[in-house]
Amino acid sequence: MLLSLKDRTFLVTGGGSGIGRAAAAAVVASGGNAMLAGRNVDKLAAAATEIEAIAAHGGQVRYEPADVTDEDQAARVVAATTAWNGRLDGVVHSAGGSETIGPLTQIDSAAWRNTVDLNVNGTMYVLKHAAREMVRGGGGSFVGISSIASSNTHRWFGAYGPSKAALDHLMMVAADELGASSVRVNGIRPGLTRTDMVAPIMESPAVSEDYRACTPLPRVGEAEDVANLAVFLLSDAAGFITGQVINVDGGHGLRRGPDLSGMLEPIFGADGLRGVV
Asked: Taking every annotated instance into account, which residue ranges of this chain make up the domain Ketoreductase (predicted)?
């Protein structure tokens, strides 16, 4: 398969940590150039230094601080990536997260809005401006990082699942619109993946055991598992694939969402978890 990304330039949002950092490392290891974007400049700098050490195939790495919930900043980082080598070949959009957890009846509405802003609006801003450049360049590939929480209900996950479901649908709409310009758009739904964001879940014995019971393959996902698929979707080997949202979850999507009651009942109480305020 043609998985070389040599002489191509990609934007990786959320590139300072977790899945974004792993995706950027995989891009560079495949010969591509990766522009890391994120809000934390220290994390971006550390990730860039780490990735430079594996740039044996000619790929390069740079970083540009940006908050994707600000459209002007999203447009700026897309422009900087394009200017680097004169074109934008693709994007791995990994910037995302959540400020909400707990029963819907107790969700902080400002935190809900912030989560939707990051996962929905931030995705749209990056896609909007990146797609313009890829269309001008004759094509490209956009990969949005979603979550199994978008397809399998995750009780008490707050805005995260609904906002990632919106991301999934945006990927499909964009694929339908942009296919005529040879721009492919796909999503990836990771299951439980070892990152800083899910550390509290992995540190809870009850919740970790429930994840194991819900996952056919007997291990936790690694960021590199997601990065491997992202590189495939960016490459020519995926040239006839668009509009798909693909699970990288060890089979978890075949069963049910996790039971977080063991972690959250001590905080909200059994009655609180069923909506009592």
From this structure: 8-191
Q: How far apart are the first and last CA of the chain?
A: 56
Of 18, 143, 133, the residue nearest 91 (C-alpha): 143
Which among 227, 229, 186 is positioned nearest to 25, based on CA atoms? 227
CATH number for the domain whose boundaries are 9-198+221-256: 3.40.50.720
Closest CA to 65 of 40, 96, 88, 47: 40
Percent of the chain residues past pLDDT 70, beyond the cut: 99
At 164, is the pLDDT very low, low, confident or very high (cuts 50, 70, 90)?
very high
**Burial group, residue 218, by CB count within 10 angstroms (0-12, 13-18, 19+):** exposed
Rg, the chain, Cα only:
18
Neighbours of 110 (CB within 10 A): 10
Residue 236 per-residue DSSP state: G
Indicate the burial class of 203 (C-beta count within 10 angstroms; 0-12, 13-18, 19 or more): exposed
Indicate the domain borders of the chain. Answer: 9-198+221-256
Report field, pTM of the whole predicted structure over 0.90: yes
DSSP labels, 252-269: GGGS-----HHHHHHHHH
Residues classed as catalytic:
160
